[in-house]
């Protein structure tokens, strides 16, 4: 797997952290029974390997995330076998108890060979209060994930991080993905998820229940090539194992 760009991103974070005692760099590796993003399967229901890095310095943060995936290969002409996300932003407090977070996210699919291309850039803003967080992401690239004329797409989500004690965390989530352009009525959808995890000194197993109302006629790009016509947004239970170091 060609991970040169990820290696550079991780190295960049390490250089930033070096010599800055107040800075923090966290790396992680993970395996999941299925890679889901915004409720949709990115790995056609197959397991995926993932890695990431997060650098923070005060309110500033930068990060990189990589995962194996399959959906681009399911589209005729598509040739990307992994995804690389680069992101960064600034988080702080507006007033006591009310936080904010603004930043960017760039999805990169090296050599994806799709027309239009799958690479996508989003800007986002979020507000948090207590354990709850409301976030809005807006596409600023020409298209959203290879969907033609979808450059005005957006995603709104509401979630919470509930500390259950003894290392257990419960994360409920609800979101809505709006796809602009001629495919809006077919491609837009809502998603819900509930994730339970347990931290064993950096080793974090998790289980997620995920469902969407995505239309199967639109979200089954592999039907013509693989014969698998299952909806990529069908309900699923996803198991994960992450190690932070």
Topology record:
Layout: H1 4-17, E1 24-32, E2 36-37, E3 40-41, E4 48-57, E5 60-68, E6 82-95, E7 98-108, E8 120-129, E9 132-139, E10 154-160, E11 162-165, E12 168-178, H2 184-187, E13 189-198, E14 203-212, H3 223-226, E15 236-244
Antiparallel strand pairs: 1-4, 1-15, 2-3, 4-5, 5-6, 6-7, 7-8, 8-9, 9-10, 10-12, 11-12, 12-13, 13-14, 14-15
Question: What does this molecule look like?
Answer:
Keywords: Signal. Pfam families: Gcw_chp (PF09694). The protein has 245 residues and is mainly β. The protein has one domain: Beta Barrel (Porin). Helix content is 9%, strand content 51%. It contains three helices and 15 strands. A twelve-stranded antiparallel barrel has the order 1-4-5-6-7-8-9-10-12-13-14-15. The protein has a two-stranded antiparallel ribbon with strand order 2-3.
Q: Briefly, what is this?
A:
Keywords: Signal. This protein has 245 residues and is mainly β.
């Amino acid at each position: 797997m060609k991970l040169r760009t990820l290696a550079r991103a991780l190295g960049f974070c390490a250089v930033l952290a070096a010599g800055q005692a107040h800075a923090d760099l966290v790396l992680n590796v993970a395996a999941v029974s299925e890679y889901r993003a915004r409720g949709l399967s990115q790995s056609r229901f197959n397991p995926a390997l993932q890695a990431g890095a997060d650098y923070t310095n005060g309110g500033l943060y930068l990060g990189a995330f990589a995962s194996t995936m399959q959906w681009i290969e399911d589209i005729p002409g598509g040739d990307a076998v992994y995804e690389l996300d680069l992101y960064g932003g600034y988080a702080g407090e507006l007033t006591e108890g009310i936080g904010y977070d603004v930043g960017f996210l760039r999805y990169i699919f090296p050599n994806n060979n799709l027309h239009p291309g799958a690479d996508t850039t989003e800007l986002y803003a979020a507000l948090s209060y207590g354990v709850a967080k409301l976030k809005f992401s807006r596409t600023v690239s020409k298209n959203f994930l290879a969907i033609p004329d979808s450059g005005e797409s957006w995603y709104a989500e509401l979630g919470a991080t509930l500390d259950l004690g003894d290392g257990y965390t419960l994360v409920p989530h609800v979101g809505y993905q709006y796809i602009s352009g001629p495919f809006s009525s077919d491609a837009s959808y809502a998603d819900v998820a509930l994730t339970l995890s347990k931290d064993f000194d950096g080793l974090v197993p998790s289980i997620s229940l995920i469902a969407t109302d995505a239309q199967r006629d639109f979200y089954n790009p592999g039907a013509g090539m693989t014969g698998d016509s299952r909806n990529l947004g069908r309900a699923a239970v996803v198991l994960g194992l992450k190690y932070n170091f």
